[in-house]
Write a structure and sequence with these properties.
This protein is an alpha+beta fold and 257 residues long. It has a single domain (7-250), classed as Creatinase/methionine aminopeptidase superfamily (Creatine Amidinohydrolase, Alpha-Beta Complex), CATH 3.90.230.10. The protein is 28% helix and 26% strand. The chain contains four helices and 15 strands. Strands 8-7-9-14-15 form a five-stranded antiparallel β-sheet. Strands 1, 2, 4 and 5 form a four-stranded antiparallel β-sheet that branches. Helix 1 (7-30) packs across helix 2 (37-50) and helix 3 packs antiparallel against helix 4 (143-156). The chain is globular and about 45 Å long. The protein binds magnesium ion (2 copies).
């Protein structure tokens, strides 16, 4: 299977990405202590459906939610439910949107009110690492160049990179090749080419890399019980560099062949 997307495919993923960005903005406006994770799930599900799209995660391998809501020491894949968000907590919101058969994927960790200084630093460093990784997503580099800068940014700030979960290609399927690890692997991965669409998604823990899966079979938590942060964008590699498809900025399609 080719790793490259056509212009039409990229434009469709972009449509999915625009809706995803709007949904994430809606979360940003509403999210606060006192809400349940289920309320956020409903907010996003309604937004996506109002835009004639489908929440990618609902029913994906049996996942029950429309989004993933991962609170505190939950790393990713938290199931929305009756858990009430509290001041001082962080919560990662991961959204997937399927528009006309193509997916976009993006995540963001939100802080609820004042949070511990070191946790705030973890969140900031994880977000910075996402943008450092995206900057390496250019023609001629390897996947490993993205991985290296993300890992270096975590470790130089004293944080730990989750090894069990990685970024991925995305398109007709939510998870496609190539894998995009947040750490340097023995295999540098494919050379990056124009037309690749990737979901880059650093997941950083406070100290330890180890994670566990909870009883529900989905929720990934840190083994040490300390907080974890997660940021993700879907991007396309073009001749002029990487373009983010899930942040609402416009793209000059005329200049893309
Ligand atoms: Mg995601
Ligand atoms: Mg993803």
């Amino acid at each position: 299977m080719t790793l490259l997307k056509t212009k039409e495919e990229i434009m469709t993923i972009r449509e999915a990405g625009k809706i995803l960005y709007g949904a994430m903005q809606a979360v940003e406006e509403k999210i606060q202590a006192g809400m349940t994770t289920e309320e956020i799930d409903l907010l996003v599900e309604n937004y996506i459906k109002e835009h004639d799209a489908i929440p990618s995660f609902k029913g994906f391998q049996g996942f029950p939610g429309s989004i993933c809501t991962s609170v505190g020491s939950q790393v990713v894949h938290g199931i929305p439910g009756d858990r009430v968000l509290k001041t001082g907590e962080i919560v990662s919101i991961d959204i997937g949107v399927n528009k006309n058969g193509y997916h976009s994927d993006s995540a963001k960790t939100f802080a609820l009110g004042d949070i511990d200084e070191k946790v705030r630093c973890l969140v900031e460093v994880t977000e910075e690492a996402l943008y450092l990784g995206i900057a390496e997503a250019k023609v001629g580099n390897n996947i490993g160049d993205i991985s290296r800068v993300i890992q270096e940014h975590a470790e130089s700030n004293g944080f730990a990179v989750v090894r069990q979960l990685v970024g991925h290609g995305i398109g007709r399927s939510l998870h496609e090749d190539p894998k995009v690890p947040n750490f340097v692997d023995r295999n540098p991965g494919p050379v990056l080419e124009k037309g690749m669409v990737l979901a880059i998604e650093p997941m950083f823990n406070m100290e330890e890399i180890d994670v566990l899966t909870e009883q529900d079979g989905w929720t990934i938590v840190t083994k040490d019980g300390k907080p974890s942060a997660h940021f993700e964008h879907t991007i396309v590699i073009l001749d002029e560099g990487p373009k983010i498809l899930t942040n609402g900025t416009s793209i000059d399609w005329e200049n893309i062949n």
